[in-house]
Amino acid sequence: MKIVGISGSPNREGSNNHMIERSLDIAKQRGFDREKITLANANISPCTDCHVCRTQNSCPIDDDMAGINSSLESADGIIVSSPVYFGSPPGQLKMLFDRTLPLRRNGFLLKDKVGGALAVGASRNGGQEYTLLAIHAWMHIHGMIVVGDNSHFGGITQKAADTDEEGMKTVEDTVNKLCDTLDRLAAR
Ligand SMILES: Cc1cc2nc3c(=O)[nH]c(=O)nc-3n(C[C@H](O)[C@H](O)[C@H](O)COP(=O)(O)O)c2cc1C
Predict the structure, then answer these.
(1) Cβ atoms within 10 Å, residue 58
(2) How far is 77 from 116, CA to CA, in rounded Å?
(3) What's the pLDDT at 56?
């Protein structure tokens, strides 16, 4: 089984990268295949609501989203890590979310994948919870199974994440919950 981690920050070596690297380390220890997607080097244009994906399982925009959608389709679990920008996810991540519409319109291809969300802000209470809920909304609208950290909504840290021990524990708890859920589903 495979877990895909998305780092939703334009910064290659920032807090989101740290949170996703830690998440994928845990996934590896727990025996899962892993794939990392980072928005630091992704070329993603916005959805133009052209309606093509209503009738064809494709998108006419030629950028990195075809590969990202195929990675998401191949995943059993998806972890999304987002920076908080003005209290919500950044435009870059929202563009990725919007461009997954072909997966929904062509048979709900993310349905029943297990999802977990992580968020980091410069402030302690800078909008991380709202950012997690925005990610959860994307997951629910795809019919995914959403997990938290076994206590609250998911992984929340304050920048710099690698120095926020308490926050990183919520990241680890979220990833372990996601792995536990995949193991339980596989056992049935
Ligand atoms: C445009 C912009 C808006 C931001 N708004 C917030 C905010 O509302 N709350 C907050 O706590 N941090 C805010 N920040 C700080 C970022 O959340 C923080 O730098 C980021 O999460 C660090 O992640 P990274 O190192 O992976 O890029 C903002 C940063 C930028 C660039």
Answers:
(1) 12
(2) 8
(3) 87
Mean pLDDT of 22-43: 97
The pTM of the full predicted model, rounded to 2 decimals, is 0.98
The count of C-alpha atoms lying within 13 angstroms of the C-alpha of 75, restricted to the half-sphere facing its C-beta, is 32
Task: Calculate what percentage of the chain has a pLDDT beyond 70.
Answer: 100
Q: State residue 41's pLDDT score.
A: 87
Smallest CA separation from ligand 1 atom 5, residue: 85
Give the pocket of ligand 1 (CB within 6 Å).
9, 11, 14-16, 83-87, 120-123, 126-127, 159
Q: Which atom of ligand 1 is nearest to the CA of 17?
A: 26
- The CA-based dihedral angle spanning residues 123, 37, 101, 120, taken in that order and rounded to the nearest 10 degrees: -10
Q: Which domains does the chain have, with CATH numbers?
A: 2-187 (3.40.50.360)
Span 80-94, average pLDDT:
98
Closest residue by Cα to atom 28, ligand 1, is 85
Distance separating alpha carbons of residues 108 and 153, to the nearest angstrom: 24
Q: Separation of 25 CA from ligand 1 center, angstroms?
A: 24
Ligand 1 center–CA 59 separation, angstroms: 31
